[in-house]
Design a protein that fits this description.
single chain; alpha+beta; two-stranded antiparallel sheet; elongated
Amino acid sequence: MPYVNIKVTREGGPDGAGPSADQKARLIIGVTDLLHDVLDKNPATTFVVIDEVPLEDWGVGGLPVQEYRKQTQ
C-alpha cells in the first residue's frame, strides 16, 4: 500500500495560486501509474497526497526560497 506525499509551493498555476485541479489530477495519476509500472503496485491501494506550502514557508540552502533565488540568478 504505497503512500506518496508531494509537496509543492503555492506559485505558478492559475493566477499564481499553485497547481490547478487538472495539474494535481495529472500528478496523482502519473505517480500512481509509475508505481504500478515500476513496482507492480495496485493502483486501488496507492495513496497520493499533495501538500501546497506557502512560498514563504519554503527554504533551500539555508535561506527562504525567495532570497535563495535572488542570490542564484
